[in-house]
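Researcher: Sequence recovery benchmark, item below. Answer with residues only.
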C-alpha cells in the first residue's frame, strides 16, 4: 500500500449489512487511480468496527495480499480496531499515517470482482443461526481472537498464502458477528484452530 494522493471522499456514510454492501463500499469511484483507507472508512462509518475489520480481512483474502507490506498494514489496522472494540469505544480512531494508505483502483476492482461470487453465496446462506455465539456477551471473545490472529500477520507475511488463510478465518468470524450467524463465527474459530495446529506441527517437526 502507498500513501493516498486522492481528495477525501464525500459519499454518504453507509452501514453495510452484507458482504455485497461491503464490497461496494470498497469499490473505487469511476476514474479514480487509487482508493485510501480513509475513503473506505468514511463510507462504512466510524462506528462500524466489525465492518472495518472485515474490509481488511477481505483484502488479505484476495490476491492483493501479495503486495509487500499489505499484511503488516492490515495487521496494524485490525489490531487497533479490535482493541478499541474490546475497550468499548463508541467511535473508531485510526492514525493519519494509516488512513492515508491506499491501493491501486485497478487492483482493488480486480479483487472485488474476484470476491463477488463467493461473497454473494455467503450472503444468500446466512440466516441468523446459533445467534448466542454472536451475542453481545460473547462478542469480546471474537474480537480477542481476531487481535491474536492479526498479531501473527507481519511474521506470516514471509510465508506465501498463509496470511490469506488466517484472514479467511477472520472474515468468517466478522461476517458471523455482522449477520448474527453463529455458524460462520464457529467456522472461523475452527479454521483458525486448524491452521494453528498445522503451523504448530510443522514448527515442532511432526510433519
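Model:
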Amino acid at each position: 500500500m502507498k500513501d493516498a494522493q486522492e481528495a477525501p471522499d464525500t459519499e454518504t456514510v453507509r452501514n453495510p449489512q452484507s458482504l455485497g454492501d461491503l464490497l461496494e463500499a470498497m469499490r473505487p469511484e469511476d476514474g479514480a487511480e487509487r482508493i485510501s483507507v480513509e475513503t473506505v472508512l468514511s463510507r462504512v462509518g466510524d462506528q462500524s468496527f466489525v465492518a472495518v475489520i472485515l474490509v481488511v480481512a477481505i483484502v488479505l483474502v484476495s490476491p492483493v495480499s501479495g503486495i509487500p507490506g499489505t499484511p503488516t498494514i492490515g495487521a496494524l489496522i485490525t489490531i487497533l480496531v479490535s482493541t478499541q472494540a474490546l475497550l468499548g469505544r463508541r467511535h473508531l480512531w485510526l492514525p493519519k499515517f494509516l488512513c492515508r494508505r491506499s491501493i491501486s483502483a485497478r487492483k482493488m476492482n480486480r479483487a472485488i470482482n474476484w470476491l463477488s461470487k463467493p461473497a454473494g453465496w455467503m450472503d444468500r446462506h446466512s440466516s441468523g443461526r446459533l445467534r448466542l455465539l454472536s451475542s453481545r456477551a460473547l462478542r469480546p471473545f471474537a474480537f480477542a481472537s481476531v487481535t491474536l490472529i492479526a498479531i501473527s500477520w507481519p511474521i506470516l507475511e514471509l510465508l506465501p498464502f498463509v496470511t490469506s488463510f488466517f484472514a479467511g478465518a477472520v472474515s468468517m468470524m466478522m461476517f458471523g458477528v455482522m449477520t448474527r450467524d453463529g455458524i460462520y463465527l464457529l467456522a472461523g474459530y475452527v479454521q483458525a484452530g486448524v491452521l494453528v495446529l498445522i503451523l504448530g506441527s510443522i514448527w515442532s517437526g511432526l510433519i
